[in-house]
Amino acid sequence: DTGVSQDPRHKITKRGQNVTFRCDPISEHNRLYWYRQTLGQGPEFLTYFQNEAQLEKSRLLSDRFSAERPKGSFSTLEIQRTEQGDSAMYLCASSRTRGETQYFGPGTRLLVL
Amino acid sequence: AQKVTQAQTEISVVEKEDVTLDCVYETRDTTYYLFWYKQPPSGELVFLIRRNSFDEQNEISGRYSWNFQKSTSSFNFTITASQVVDSAVYFCALSEADRDDKIIFGKGTRLHILP
Fold first, then answer.
1. How many angstroms separate the CA of residue B6 from the nearest CA in chain A?
2. Mean of pLDDT over chain A
């Protein structure tokens, strides 16, 4: 069983640019979660999918953020018009179904200059 | 309200010493899960353990052990005979069945094992 993978691992961008991150969950995991972790803090929930349906979005997810999981497999997280406050580690996790353990990917570290 | 508190921001111990990381949680749900994750310098969150609220049995896995006490809302983690490779940030976390498995993390405890 390969783990959760994320791409890219690091991204440096200028303020105002758009960025997109990808997450590939563990095979046959129905649930996929996005979290954000800022320096010195624990990860915070952003949004999650059950198959292709996005079931909940945190208030942390402003209108500039959008996430998709078009075929219920991989997911993308896009940030439009990036701001310096978006600099963080973006973590993806997947679980087989509700109530199961979430396994995390290596994260995408974003730096907005 | 759901909350996880890890009062120890940073701990340093000498290799081979035992160390306990504290975790206190708050929840109104009767069905919930508690977790510990390890985050080494590489950044990936490594799953260590999950306990459900109905299972208060302590667990031991090699040098790691966990003490779950509902009476004090605590889920402490002990590393016995620590090793340098144990150096990492450790997160305690909580998810509630009624909140669809969203995990609430503590702020983490940074553990330094000194050779």
1. 10
2. 94
